[in-house]
Prior knowledge:
Low-confidence stretches: none
Distance between the termini: 14 Å
Order of helices and strands: HH
Mean pLDDT: 82
Subcellular location: Cell membrane
Membrane topology: Multi-pass membrane protein
Function: Involved in protein export. Participates in an early event of protein translocation.
Family: Belongs to the SecG family.
Number of helices: 2
Protein name: Protein-export membrane protein SecG
Number of strands: 0
Amino acid sequence: xxxxxxxLLIVASLLLILLVLLHRGRGGGLSSLFGxxxxxxxxxxxxxxxxxDRITLxxxxxxxxSIVGIGLLAKLGG
Length: 78
């Protein structure tokens, strides 16, 4: 079970990094360095942003659950 949670944590961490980087930048931070500050007509719709937000929150919930699970197994098992 511990190995499964560790693998789940690694996969969720990588997915979370990828999903956060896919979000549109709100300000002029690092996203404008790579062209994120430019507005174009092909930049996506609000439906895509909402779905990306939902997927990000789902992966973040999996990440938190795996962290708590690993912590509980470490406390109870060793």
